[in-house]
Amino acid sequence: MEIPTMTATRGLAASAAAMLALAALAPASPAAGARPAGSPSSSHSTSRPPALRDGHELWATIDVCASKPHPLVGVRGSMPSNGQAKETMYMSFQVQYMDQRTKRWVNLPKGGTSGAVKVGDASTTRQIGRTFVLVAPGRGGSYELRGIVEFQWRRGSKVTLSTTRPTTGGHPSTAGAVPKGFSAATCTIR
């Protein structure tokens, strides 16, 4: 079974050098880096109102899904303000593929995570995204992908609230979406 390999980028453009580096990556076994899909959200909180975790301003979506000229998938998140300018918000973007054998979502073994990305202070609702460049599937092949975004509100190095969301569709205000206004739960790359 072919396992997608990718790398995170800040924008849509990928250099030829990055594409050549991706082609050299050897995929790990499906179990490497695997994490069960689990429930749609999990939370850690220190006496924060559930409204932050349950409100309409907290979401993740696929905002770029393109097979040509290079296979790309973009994951975008939105996180609400908690009104605390002394806190900082972070998002981590993870891409998963559907393992056709087990019918489970599995983390990509290489290049499918952004690590923690600083979004800004927690005084206002913020959005940010990451685009991942894939090595093209073999002839006639395809990948079904989704994103998982972990949201963290931190005061210094202490996490005051953490929650995750899988990508869902139909979200407004997806700046940078291709095509404009695109918002989906999954992406199929051929």
Fold topology:
Blueprint lengths: L5 E4 L6 H8 L19 E3 L5 H4 L4 E8 L5 E8 L4 E16 L4 E4 L5 E10 L3 E9 L8 E13 L2 E9 L20 E3 L1
Antiparallel strand pairs: 1-8, 2-10, 3-4, 4-8, 5-6, 5-7, 5-9, 9-10, 9-11
Walk me through this protein's architecture.
This protein has one domain (6-24, 41-189): Immunoglobulin-like (Sandwich). The protein is built from 2 helices and 11 strands, in the order βαβαβββββββββ. It starts with 5 loop residues before the first strand and ends with a strand. Strand 9 and strand 10 form a beta hairpin. Strands 2, 5, 6, 7, 9, 10 and 11 form a 7-stranded antiparallel beta sheet that branches. The radius of gyration is 17 Å and the shape is elongated. It is mostly beta strands and 190 residues long. The protein has helices at residues 16-23, 51-54; strands spanning 6-9, 43-45, 59-66, 72-79, 84-99, 104-107, 113-122, 126-134, 143-155, 158-166, 187-189.
Name the descriptors.
190 residues, mainly beta, Immunoglobulin-like, seven-stranded antiparallel sheet, four-stranded antiparallel sheet, 2 helices, 11 strands, 46% strand
In short:
The protein is mainly beta and 190 residues long. The protein contains 2 helices and 11 strands; from the N terminus they run E-H-E-H-E-E-E-E-E-E-E-E-E. The protein has one domain (6-24, 41-189): Immunoglobulin-like (Sandwich).
